[in-house]
Specification:
The protein is an alpha+beta fold. The protein has one helix and two strands. The longest helix is centred in the middle third of the chain and has 18 residues. The structure holds zinc ion.
Length: 79
Protein backbone atom coordinates (compact mmCIF):
# COMPACT_ATOMS: atom_id res chain seq x y z
CA UNK A 1 0.00 0.00 0.00
CA UNK A 2 1.23 3.44 -0.86
CA UNK A 3 1.69 5.83 1.98
CA UNK A 4 0.35 9.28 1.43
CA UNK A 5 3.05 11.78 2.31
CA UNK A 6 0.71 14.60 3.05
CA UNK A 7 -2.04 12.69 4.80
CA UNK A 8 -2.05 15.20 7.63
CA UNK A 9 -3.08 18.04 5.37
CA UNK A 10 -6.60 19.28 5.67
CA UNK A 11 -8.89 21.90 4.30
CA UNK A 12 -8.83 25.11 6.27
CA UNK A 13 -10.83 28.28 5.92
CA UNK A 14 -8.64 31.28 5.16
CA UNK A 15 -9.64 34.79 5.99
CA UNK A 16 -7.32 37.62 5.17
CA UNK A 17 -7.25 41.06 3.72
CA UNK A 18 -6.95 39.90 0.16
CA UNK A 19 -8.18 36.37 0.27
CA UNK A 20 -11.08 34.48 1.68
CA UNK A 21 -11.74 30.88 0.95
CA UNK A 22 -10.68 27.31 1.40
CA UNK A 23 -7.03 26.45 1.50
CA UNK A 24 -4.60 23.77 2.58
CA UNK A 25 -3.30 23.55 6.13
CA UNK A 26 0.10 22.41 4.90
CA UNK A 27 0.86 24.74 2.01
CA UNK A 28 -0.18 27.93 0.25
CA UNK A 29 -2.77 26.29 -1.97
CA UNK A 30 -6.15 28.00 -2.10
CA UNK A 31 -9.29 26.89 -3.82
CA UNK A 32 -10.40 28.94 -6.80
CA UNK A 33 -13.93 27.93 -7.66
CA UNK A 34 -15.04 28.38 -11.19
CA UNK A 35 -18.09 30.58 -11.51
CA UNK A 36 -21.55 29.13 -11.13
CA UNK A 37 -23.36 28.11 -14.25
CA UNK A 38 -26.53 29.99 -15.06
CA UNK A 39 -28.56 26.83 -15.41
CA UNK A 40 -27.60 25.47 -12.01
CA UNK A 41 -29.95 25.52 -9.09
CA UNK A 42 -28.70 26.49 -5.67
CA UNK A 43 -28.63 22.87 -4.58
CA UNK A 44 -26.69 21.85 -7.67
CA UNK A 45 -24.33 24.72 -7.11
CA UNK A 46 -23.59 23.61 -3.56
CA UNK A 47 -23.06 20.05 -4.68
CA UNK A 48 -20.80 21.12 -7.54
CA UNK A 49 -18.84 23.32 -5.16
CA UNK A 50 -18.22 20.52 -2.68
CA UNK A 51 -17.26 18.06 -5.40
CA UNK A 52 -14.96 20.57 -7.03
CA UNK A 53 -13.44 21.58 -3.72
CA UNK A 54 -12.54 18.07 -2.59
CA UNK A 55 -11.36 17.08 -6.06
CA UNK A 56 -9.09 20.10 -6.34
CA UNK A 57 -7.84 19.62 -2.82
CA UNK A 58 -7.09 15.94 -3.38
CA UNK A 59 -5.25 16.60 -6.62
CA UNK A 60 -3.04 19.50 -5.57
CA UNK A 61 0.56 18.83 -4.62
CA UNK A 62 1.74 20.65 -1.53
CA UNK A 63 5.27 20.77 -2.93
CA UNK A 64 4.02 22.91 -5.78
CA UNK A 65 2.58 25.50 -3.44
CA UNK A 66 5.35 26.29 -1.01
CA UNK A 67 4.50 28.57 1.82
CA UNK A 68 6.44 31.79 1.91
CA UNK A 69 7.16 33.19 5.33
CA UNK A 70 6.00 36.74 5.91
CA UNK A 71 4.64 37.04 2.38
CA UNK A 72 1.63 35.23 1.07
CA UNK A 73 1.94 34.39 -2.63
CA UNK A 74 -0.96 36.60 -3.58
CA UNK A 75 0.88 39.53 -2.05
CA UNK A 76 4.15 38.79 -3.77
CA UNK A 77 5.21 41.34 -6.35
CA UNK A 78 6.23 40.24 -9.76
CA UNK A 79 8.88 42.20 -11.62
ZN1 LIG B 1 -1.27 21.50 0.30
Amino acid sequence: MLREENSSRELVWNEGQNVEGWGCSECAWVFNPSGPRADESLDEMKRTFKTQLSAEFDSHACAEHPRVKDAAPWKRRVG
